[in-house]
Design brief:
5-stranded mixed β-sheet, Ubiquitin-like (UB roll), binds flavin mononucleotide, Rossmann fold, binds iron/sulfur cluster
């Protein structure tokens, strides 16, 4: 099975091992082509972002203005704070040079001379691995001013590591930029988008760690090679982080389009005690949950999961067996989003707290059937009405878990006379994943 971002090569984090396996030859190849050629190849490869929204990487790069007097920047998103997601840190530890090489190629393509790698501050171990690799790359002349001599090119690039203070919201692209600028990590209203008004008001591209790590093999092997792997509309491999009730939790790099059941049973070793699966969240805790009795034939790629009523998100697959208390799960997830809400906009700030209050009531045994409708109504009124997508991230698990497991939730509440509950009042922002 093809491994693109986490090749099974011992000690790949060491620069000598990386070089012995063809490392830093893709960037040399890229420098012999024009930046537009590189963007064109990445576009044709079909590479889509691995940070959650699965947006075309090449298309995003093409939004960067060509003629501007302002400096341009690349931000690499390694905040990785979505519950259930633990794959970017594997790259920082095991294949940091491929990420560095990907950064150099991306910067060359978009015309950026500075890149910031934003890593959640608590990830000390992974920051240490990545810093060591970056220092080695500088010492060997692959990064910084020495690039001129090393590659015989005018293009140079500086790469800085920026440690986040540890907040989920810092992973949202516009708050990540505010955080780098030394401000409070409040998301910005969009438009303008980062390519127009990014870091310090200058054109900026933001991509996930895994997205950028895919770039060197695409340049080395050609876009046609990449486009043939996995599902045509979402090609390549994905680092699936499988957690919860499985015998072998871990990160599995597999082609897009792999069956969810194959991932759970063949790779993650199935469910302990051969219990039935009650629920699976396929892309990190913010994605709509799927029923365990409806997993057959579901493929793990953006289009297939959308058709199944969920989304690929960060590829963090959370498996829950038949004995799981879904009310507890939903309460815990909601508590997370309530805690991580930056508080900037009312529907998210107030709505997450309101949903948590209702769920705690249900958990204590005092909930009513009416509370379930109320939860859906509150979730509907958060979704699409907030500055950033954290609002949707908080709303989707509540709305879809209750809708899809209504029978289960009904057994945990007291039936009372139904009261009329408000429908969705309006929507200001289009959902990232129209369901
Ligand atoms: C609340 C919130 C948290 C996010 N956290 C992350 C994160 O930790 N890492 C990440 O790559 N993207 C995260 N994203 C998505 C980013 O805003 C952005 O879309 C992504 O970094 C773009 O990279 P990609 O196109 O390569 O996927 C988050 C989005 C939201 C709304
Ligand atoms: S949706 Fe939530 S996290 Fe995002 S800006 Fe509004 S309050 Fe902050």
């Amino acid at each position: 099975m093809e491994k693109i971002v986490l090749p099974e090569i011992k000690d790949m984090h060491l620069i000598d091992v990386y070089l012995a396996n063809g490392g830093y030859s893709s960037v040399k190849k890229a420098f012999n082509q024009t930046p537009d050629d590189i963007i064109d190849q990445v576009k044709k490869s079909g590479l889509r972002g691995r940070g959650g929204a699965a947006f075309s990487a090449g298309l995003k790069w093409s939004f960067m203005p060509k003629s501007t007097t302002k400096p341009k920047y690349l931000c690499v998103n390694g905040d990785e704070s979505e519950p259930g997601s633990f794959k970017d840190r594997q790259i920082l530890e095991h294949n940091p040079h491929q990420l560095i090489e990907g950064i150099l190629i991306t910067c060359y393509a978009i015309g950026a001379k500075i890149a910031y790698v934003y890593i959640r501050g608590e990830y000390h171990k992974f920051i240490n691995f990545f810093s060591k690799a970056l220092n080695d790359a500088y010492e060997h002349g692959f990064v910084g001013d020495a690039m001129r001599e090393k590659f015989g090119t005018d293009f140079t690039c500086q790469i800085y590591i920026h440690k986040g203070a540890g907040a989920y919201i810092c992973g949202e692209e516009s708050s990540l930029m505010n955080s780098i600028e030394g401000k409070r990590a409040y998301p910005r209203v969009k438009p303008p988008f980062p390519a127009q008004y990014g870091l310090w008001g200058c054109p900026t591209t933001i991509n996930n760690v895994e997205t950028i790590t895919n770039v060197p093999p695409i340049i080395a092997n050609g876009w046609e090679w990449f486009a043939k792997i996995g599902e045509p509309k979402h090609p390549g491999t994905i680092l699936f982080g499988v957690s919860g009730h499985v015998n072998k939790p871990g990160v599995y790099e597999l082609p897009t389009g792999t069956l969810l059941t194959e991932l759970i049973y063949n790779y993650a070793g199935g469910v302990p005690g051969n219990k039935k699966i009650l629920c699976v969240i396929p892309g990190g805790s913010s994605m709509p949950p799927l029923r365990g009795d409806q997993l057959e034939e579901i493929k793990m790629d953006a289009e297939s999961l959308k058709a199944a009523g969920s989304a690929i998100g960060t590829g963090g697959v959370m498996v829950m067996d038949e004995d799981t208390d879904l009310v507890k799960v939903l309460t815990r997830i909601t508590k997370f989003y309530y805690h991580e809400s930056c508080g900037q906009c009312t529907p998210c700030r107030e709505g997450t707290g309101w949903m948590l209050k209702i769920l705690n009531r249900i958990l204590s045994g005092s909930g009513s059937s009416n509370d379930l409708d109320l939860l859906i109504s509150v979730a509907n009124n958060i979704e699409g009405n907030t500055v950033c997508a954290l609002g949707d991230a908080a709303a989707w698990p509540v709305k879809y878990m209750i809708e899809r497991f209504r029978d289960y939730f009904e057994t945990r509440v007291n039936t009372v006379t139904k009261l009329p509950i408000a429908n969705k009042v309006h929507s200001l922002r289009k959902s990232v994943i129209p369901l």
